[in-house]
């Protein structure tokens, strides 16, 4: 079967690598000059930057086995997460649910009382949106001091606009005893899906896609797909080259994929396309002289008056900076297609300096990168829209695989598993 893979990020690379291992060469069409997608790292003057922090969480034995086969597993260092949440002038360890001890006394009281009231309140109907879910599970104090402002900043959406499909795995739920202990500073157990992470001992996260890419025979970089003719089953690259296919594994963002389709979209499909909602993320990567200002790996900033929602210090968990220097990775969320990026970066850098997190005079390297799409907004339209789009594209043998093609929230481990699953399906059909 003639299969083409659009996108040479982790998902597309793993799909191609698994197909190659099964004796099937599927060309991977990657628009950039190197593979890896959002898992690329770049080196500038001895500083190594990822596209925002990329920490590896491995929960499944098949992922560990695969990383072992690639010769990566032993090159990863294991870290226990050290992260903080900054509320007002107070930094307290993440997750806040079990660490209110670092907050101002009044904020701590709000969180504790709100949690106890929510815990003691008889449950009515099941919550249907993120707002009600947070209020029922964590109470009004945690909602107002962290969950609502943080998620507003990240998703650029009101909490009631968000559904619940994404929260289970990513938001740890404590019990009353844990919350009380957390208010008193008695809790130090690591909690949450990212309590422990792995990261290459040297170099950036690109070790992972690079190792996969070495084993992909049909990788074509600088090959941007610009048009897709579903009826005639060909796609066209920038430059005009046309490639025929029987099946496509698409790993690029769903809006971009649909926008290149030449065929007329049925009304239901066009509506579903319009319903897709997402944010872009600007990453300000800085290489700075001197030691890192804090020991944590990253900090969250829910305060609406602070321009960024997260600031990472990647050289606290990897050899990513020359001796005596460190790296800083700042994230700011934008709506698609709008916003003054340079002005937002300047405002963020001023705030970083004001907070004592970056000394502007010590900055050696500064890079701005926009990740687009970055986060899918899980609003109430998403599930139905994705189902319509998946069905329609599937009926034309376009299979969606990975975080942005499937329009979901997922991590690098999922990208590996998604790529494997996409390859298995092709192998099965070829038998
Ligand atoms: C801000 C942020 C932080 C994250 N942090 C973590 C983390 O800490 N840990 C973790 O496990 N995961 C993290 N992730 C998730 C992780 O990045 C993804 O799960 C993974 O990179 C998905 O890989 P992919 O191949 O599906 O997509 P991508 O990496 O986006 O790959 C798609 C590829 O398609 C190419 N492409 C696009 N359009 C075209 C076209 N028209 N023609 C040809 N090629 C095209 C792109 O250049 C890209 O290489 C994070 C994601 C974001 C946005």
Describe this structure in words.
The protein is α/β, with parallel strands linked by helices. Among the domains are: 3-40 and 206-275 and 380-430, FAD/NAD(P)-binding domain; 83-193, no CATH class. The chain has 13 helices and 19 strands. The chain has a 7-stranded mixed beta sheet with strand order 7-6-15-16-17-14-18. Helix 4 packs antiparallel against helix 5 (140-155). The N and C termini lie close together (10 Å). The structure holds flavin-adenine dinucleotide. Flavin-adenine dinucleotide binds at residues 6-12, 29-32, 37-39, 52-57, 224-225, 251-252, 256, 281, 371, 374, 402-404, 410-412, 415.
Q: Could you state the CATH homologous superfamily of the domain at 3-40 and 206-275 and 380-430?
A: FAD/NAD(P)-binding domain
Individual helix count: 13
Structural class: alpha/beta
Largest sheet: 7 strands, mixed
Straight-line distance between termini: 10 Å
Give the CATH topology of the domain at 3-40 and 206-275 and 380-430: FAD/NAD(P)-binding domain
Rounded to the nearest angstrom, the radius of gyration is 22 Å
Overall strand count:
19
Any idea what the shape is?
globular
């Amino acid at each position: 079967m003639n299969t083409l893979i659009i996108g040479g990020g982790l998902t597309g690379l793993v799909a191609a690598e698994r197909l190659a291992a099964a004796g099937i060469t599927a060309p991977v069409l990657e628009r950039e000059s190197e593979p890896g997608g959002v898992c690329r790292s770049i080196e500038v003057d001895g500083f190594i930057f990822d596209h925002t922090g990329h920490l590896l969480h491995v929960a499944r034995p098949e992922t560990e086995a695969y990383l072992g086969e690639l010769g990566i597993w032993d090159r990863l260092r294991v870290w226990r997460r050290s992260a903080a949440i900054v509320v007002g002038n107070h930094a307290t360890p993440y997750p806040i649910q079990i660490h209110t001890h670092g907050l101002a006394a009044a904020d701590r009281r709000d969180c504790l009382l709100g949690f106890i009231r929510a815990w003691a309140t008889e449950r009515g109907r099941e919550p249907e949106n993120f707002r009600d879910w947070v209020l029922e599970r964590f109470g009004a104090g945690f909602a107002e001091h962290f969950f609502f402002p943080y998620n507003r900043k990240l998703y650029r959406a009101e909490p009631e606009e968000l559904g619940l499909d994404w929260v289970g795995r990513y938001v740890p739920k404590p019990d009353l005893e844990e919350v009380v202990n957390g208010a008193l500073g008695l809790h130090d157990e690591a909690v949450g899906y990212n309590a422990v992470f792995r990261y290459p001992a040297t170099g950036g996260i690109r070790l992972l896609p690079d190792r996969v890419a070495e084993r992909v025979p049909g990788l074509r970089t600088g090959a941007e797909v610009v048009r897709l003719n579903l009826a005639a089953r060909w796609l066209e690259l920038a430059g005009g080259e046309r490639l025929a296919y029987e099946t496509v594994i698409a790993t690029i963002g769903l809006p971009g994929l649909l926008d290149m389709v030449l065929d007329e979209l049925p009304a239901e499909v066009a509506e579903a396309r319009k319903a897709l909602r997402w944010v872009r993320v600007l990453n300000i990567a800085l290489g700075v002289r001197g030691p890192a200002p804090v020991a944590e790996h990253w900090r969250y900033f829910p305060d609406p008056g602070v321009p960024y929602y997260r600031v990472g210090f990647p050289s606290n968990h990897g050899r990513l900076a020359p001796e005596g220097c460190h790296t800083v990775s700042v994230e700011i969320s934008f709506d698609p297609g709008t916003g003054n990026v340079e002005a937002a970066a300047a405002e963020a850098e001023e705030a970083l300096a004001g907070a004592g997190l970056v000394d502007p005079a010590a900055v050696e390297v500064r890079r701005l990168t926009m990740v687009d799409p970055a986060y899918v907004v899980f609003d109430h339209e998403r599930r139905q829209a994705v189902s319509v789009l998946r069905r329609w594209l599937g009926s034309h043998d376009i299979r969606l695989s990975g975080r942005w093609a499937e329009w979901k929230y997922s991590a690098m481990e999922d990208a590996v598993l998604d790529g494997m699953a996409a390859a298995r399906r092709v192998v099965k059909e070829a038998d």
